[in-house]
């Protein structure tokens, strides 16, 4: 594997893509340390303990790469873009005009992407206003005003700065996808979580709970092994191509297979579910009253309401995203068009029904696996007294994104006749 990595760096084009990806991620991490204008940096430092641990603020701070606890330019992170993507994908199924756009190929997808960007700006602006009032409410904890001279002009400047930071992150993620290696948005979430890994390891090493210290390495290794095992699992559907006579020549024929992965949705359902489940406690935290705090505590990332809700959303989004990415009817039509068929299954509608039935049987264990991996480590950690949040959701995203990025790098190597990572 090490020799393969070294070989990848000898390819000039791949080396440039890797360097570009690393540079953009470094700039993204730099932005999480630059405070927005108009705040008291010392006051923000005095309340950073409020954004640690297993509270909802600690959870949001983890996904922003620590930018929330520093009230940085990249405080909002990439979550507004993810929320906008969820809304647009759901509307695509409901609104006929958007469904028509989604079927118009690359031009239609560009229009939907543009709508997603507009919606991201609106959501980021609204969320930025909420965060401004959240930090204002933490003045008592800081002992001094976090926002200096709380006026309309100052608030507007901070909100515009946070919104611009979110738009910049969105643009950087799209640049990575176009010119780098891997999915830019997923890699930014990956970088945000990995940035908190040293603190998580320190929390584990300094924990006074002996059970947690012994259990965590085994749970982490088991989760990683389960993710790799299921992510690489696939059902291979045999495909037979008939021979055709074109002019005086006979072409076609032969056998191949159609690979259907057990988890075709990847880690996207986990990211979507985490984004949605972070919304209710965030609203409760922003209300800053007794009812709001109780609501936020009820949907705490370590609470049962959050775990159950996240598991349900993961299962739903797994089915939804699988249906979006793989259409059995279109696949059956393509096979019929090029003279392919599944042995024992008639071409056309019977093939589509067969693929749909197989896909449904594969998606169910894939969805249950995602929900279990996201929930079980958190449930196990809840049985200890450790104040720690680097649970199943974070591990699942980190390992899943790493595998997907590795596969894309392998594809780049295979295009240039080099041996890939996966044997």
Please describe what this structure looks like.
Helices cover 70% and strands 6% of the residues. The protein is mainly alpha-helical and 423 residues long. It has two domains: 1-195, SecY subunit domain (Preprotein translocase SecY subunit); 196-400, SecY subunit domain (Preprotein translocase SecY subunit, Orthogonal Bundle), CATH 1.10.3370.10. Helix 2 (12-31) packs antiparallel against helix 10 (152-179) and helix 14 (268-277) packs across helix 17 (304-325). The radius of gyration is 24 Å and the shape is globular.
Question: CATH homologous superfamily of the largest domain, by name?
Answer: SecY subunit domain
> What is the highest CATH level, the class of the largest domain?
Mainly Alpha
Structural class category? mainly alpha
- Mean of residue pLDDT values: 80
Q: Please tally the helical runs, counting DSSP H or I stretches of 4 or more residues.
A: 20
Widest sheet: strand ordering: 4-1-5
Summarize this entry quickly.
This protein is mainly alpha-helical and 423 residues long.
List strands and helices in order, with pairings.
Blueprint: H1 2-10, H2 12-31, H3 41-46, H4 56-63, H5 67-70, H6 79-94, H7 96-102, H8 106-137, H9 139-142, H10 152-179, H11 184-195, H12 197-205, H13 210-231, E1 234-241, E2 243-246, E3 249-252, E4 255-261, H14 268-277, H15 279-287, H16 290-298, H17 304-325, H18 328-337, E5 340-341, H19 349-382, H20 392-415
Antiparallel strand pairs: 1-4, 1-5, 2-3
Helix pairs in contact: 2-10, 2-11, 6-7, 6-8, 6-14, 7-8, 8-10, 8-15, 10-11, 11-20, 13-19, 13-20, 14-17, 15-16, 17-19, 18-19, 19-20
């Amino acid at each position: 594997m090490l020799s393969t990595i070294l070989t990848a760096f000898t390819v000039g084009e791949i080396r440039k893509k890797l360097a570009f990806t690393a540079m953009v991620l470094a700039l993204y991490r730099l932005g999480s340390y630059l405070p927005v204008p108009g705040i008291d940096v010392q006051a923000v430092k005095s309340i950073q303990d409020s954004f640690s641990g297993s509270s909802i603020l600690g959870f949001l701070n983890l996904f922003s790469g620590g930018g929330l606890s520093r009230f940085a330019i990249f405080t909002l992170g990439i979550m507004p873009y993810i929320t906008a993507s969820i809304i647009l994908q759901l509307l695509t199924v409901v609104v006929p005009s958007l469904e028509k756009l989604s079927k118009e190929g690359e031009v239609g997808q560009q229009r939907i992407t543009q709508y997603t960007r507009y919606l991201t700006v609106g959501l980021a602006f609204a969320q930025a206003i909420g965060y401004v009032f959240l930090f204002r409410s933490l003045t008592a904890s800081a002992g001094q005003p976090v926002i200096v001279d709380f006026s309309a002009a100052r608030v507007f400047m901070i909100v515009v700065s946070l919104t611009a930071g979110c738009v910049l992150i969105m643009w950087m993620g799209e640049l990575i996808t176009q010119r780098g290696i891997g999915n830019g948005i997923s890699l930014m979430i990956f970088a945000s979580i990995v940035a908190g890994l040293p603190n998580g390891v320190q929390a584990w090493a300094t924990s006074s709970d002996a059970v947690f210290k012994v259990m965590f390495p085994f749970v982490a290794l088991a989760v990683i092994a389960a993710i790799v095992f299921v992510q690489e699992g696939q059902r291979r559907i045999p495909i037979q191509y008939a021979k055709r006579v074109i002019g005086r020549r006979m072409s076609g024929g032969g056998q191949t297979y159609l690979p259907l992965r057990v988890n075709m949705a990847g880690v996207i359902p986990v990211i979507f579910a985490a984004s949605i489940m972070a919304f209710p406690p965030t609203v409760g935290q922003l209300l800053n009253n007794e009812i709001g705090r109780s609501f936020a505590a009820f949907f705490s990332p370590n609470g049962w309401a959050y775990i159950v809700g996240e598991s349900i959303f993961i299962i739903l989004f797994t089915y939804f995203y699988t249906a979006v990415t793989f259409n059995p009817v279109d696949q059956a039509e393509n096979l019929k068009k090029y003279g392919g068929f599944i042995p024992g299954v008639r071409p056309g509608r019977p093939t589509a029904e067969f693929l749909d039935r197989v896909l449904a049987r594969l998606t169910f264990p894939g969805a249950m696996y995602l929900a279990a991996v996201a929930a079980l480590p958190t449930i196990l950690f809840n049985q200890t007294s450790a104040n720690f949040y680097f649970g199943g959701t974070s591990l699942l995203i980190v390992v899943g994104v790493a595998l997907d990025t590795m596969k894309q790098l392998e594809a780049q190597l295979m295009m240039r006749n080099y041996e890939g990572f996966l044997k």
